[in-house]
């Protein structure tokens, strides 16, 4: 998650910008030299610079606790993982060529590529992998980013210079997928002193193995990458990849329109029509491994009744949220497994909870909530009223307002408590002092959602509602226990059915990302931009 | 005329007083930012577990009591060590000194533009009081005061960078082109936008001060003595009207610094304003305090300069 210009500015500006963009559309001359889409049929050519906006100065170390979302873009280009997300999002080879799990499932062995060199010419070996995990990720006092994902990993053993073994305390079938997710391998020979706080590395020119390496880091302005001549894979087509720090999403749009940016995520969806009408820019929708949810704190006894949770889902017009807030870029969610994980996603659940306020009223009545004098539902003389905390970020504020209206229609009174993001996290996540709140999860490209749902994560881990359920726990463990794709599909199909029934979180929607690309930019895989960064070496610019 | 010795004594007093202000500001900020809800951004994120949080708090030294941390900070600050940024692990002094020149350039350019435009405009309005021109300029001042900085910034970007393509949309320089000319081109729009935060105020002050002076007896005396109108305006009206305007400009400098936060964000300039925003949002305590101290220093320096400027404009005022 990233910091940036306060969402106040964003909100107040967004509405205006749409109008201003519309006005400037009338005055805007055709962008020079991009009147027609260049032909991709000619095949890839080398050369050119692609500029990508990021919201803040990045931290060039995927394990640093200060590596926020803006850092992902670069870290996924310069650092290689043991695996990377394939174009189907299943784990694909990166620094490892192949991998196998032991018969008992308590270890994974990775065969590494031979002949890989760091950008400074030093050889990459299994020692670097062992260092990254044993001396950085698994060291509790360093507080490395993402270390919670490796709770099942005891240690990493070097078998030989091109073989490593991950020893586990319990079965962890999703390990190859998790290793594809922000798990870049660090150079042991550079980071001996304090691997997470070496500023010449994190804020300078880190030694890395990816297709591009950092040429120059200019604080507050840009980070430029050039080809890594020591890269093990095919030579990248682009000469340079420049990440320019642009905090304000509206300025990003203006820069894309003036031709300064070649690819970006359109955070301000309201500008989509203007961007679509611009010459030389293409707009595409991409799937994300992400879902929005409403968490009802399970320490509040009103919400432990499953009928109440189901009633809320019937009462909330999620299609209207997608239409009004996401401008149609998204689909209704009824489980934590997103459509982006095509191998696992169960589309039959999509229509499970249609918008049906009458059904909601019926379920609430069955749970003992009946209308009082003023139309507000009551039980034992107490009105159904509670507070939802709203973090100021992205679309959360309008979404909460819509949910408030929907619940009011079935006699439930919601008070909204809007908070600055940092304070919100402290109250709702760190202290868990909340009744209800809306937010989202993004997770590695694997249906293993153990950290967000297991009883052991209630109250302190990522199980935000604190929902505890033995049957769900059992399904989560089963999913981690088998590496067989068909067996896992069966388990996660059950998990989707079950979670959609008991609603540990109230599932809202699966968002899509809007990406804006220059029409001359080719070779970008059909993935969300953050995932497509793994393939930056394959991007190329058509000659104009 | 002011004796040199008097100036030295005055400066000495002012610097001592300024140091007190800075110490007070640093202590106040230190305790307030630590009391504010939330915590460092690395800790206040969704995807961090309780165990990680505890380790990170300890590593940042935030498990120690606030008073102890303040004492340690003061001990470092007097030796010139303002601590380490929690967001980047770089020294606070380094982060600020990287950004300070950009902000001073922007704020200086905006101040210069505001003064060179504001004083003549205000004077002309006063001399042509009640005329169509006066009303027209007053109307523009009112618009200037009412228009939000980010709004104007985006409009100018859309007009000059997107539609007309004559000026760059944002940033300090073009990538790979760090010439003086490029820097100036990049500075034009932000300077204009930032100037709108203070220009209308300077115009209004100048106008009302000049109107007041024009009604004074000595102006009538000067006119009846047969002095040329040009001499009356420059030597008498302007000089006397400038006194309240100079003090107003001193008071406007903090507003100018505040305006850099938004201007630098919209135009994507790496300056102190944007740094302050990032530091506050990310609860980078040492950086917030460092920036407060620098801000307080600038404010103190401004008041000293304004006081000295007074004596140059108004011989009746003496430094004491």
Element order of chain B: H for helix, E for strand: HHHHHHHHHHHH
Extract low-pLDDT stretches of chain B.
none
* Overall mean pLDDT of chain A: 91
- Which bin fits the share of residues in helices of chain A? 25-40%
Structural class of chain A: alpha+beta
**Portion in helices of chain B:** over 70%
What is the class of the domain at 99-313 in chain B in the CATH system? Mainly Alpha
In the CATH classification, which architecture of the domain at 99-313 in chain B applies? Orthogonal Bundle
Q: For the report, how would you describe the main beta sheet of chain B?
A: none
CATH topology tier name of the domain at 99-313 in chain B? MetI-like fold
The amount of beta strand of chain A, in percent, is 15-25%
Q: Can you offer a commentary on this structure?
A:
The complex is a heterodimer of chains A (544) and B (320). Chain A is α+β, with helices and mostly antiparallel strands and 544 residues long. Chain A is built from 16 helices and 23 strands. Chain A has helices at residues 7-27, 69-78, 126-137, 175-178, 199-202, 249-257, 272-277, 306-315, 318-324, 357-366, 396-409, 421-430, 450-453, 470-481, 485-502, 529-532, and strands spanning 49-54, 83-85, 91-93, 96-101, 107-112, 153-160, 163-168, 212-218, 222-227, 240-245, 263-265, 281-287, 290-296, 330-332, 370-371, 377-379, 382-383, 385-391, 413-419, 436-442, 506-518, 521-522, 540-541. In chain A, strands 11, 12, 13, 14, 18, 19, 20 and 21 form an 8-stranded mixed β-sheet that branches. In chain A, strand 2 (83-85) and strand 3 form a beta hairpin. In chain A, helix 8 (306-315) runs antiparallel to helix 10. Chain A starts with 6 loop residues before the first helix and ends with a strand. The model of chain A is unreliable at 1-39 (pLDDT under 50). Chain B is mainly α. Chain B has a domain at 99-313: Orthogonal Bundle (MetI-like fold). Helix content of chain B is 74%, strand content 0%. Chain B is built from 12 helices and no strands. In chain B, helix 1 runs antiparallel to helix 12, helix 4 (92-127) packs antiparallel against helix 10 (229-266) and helix 10 packs antiparallel against helix 12 (285-313). The interface between A and B is large, with 70 and 61 residues.
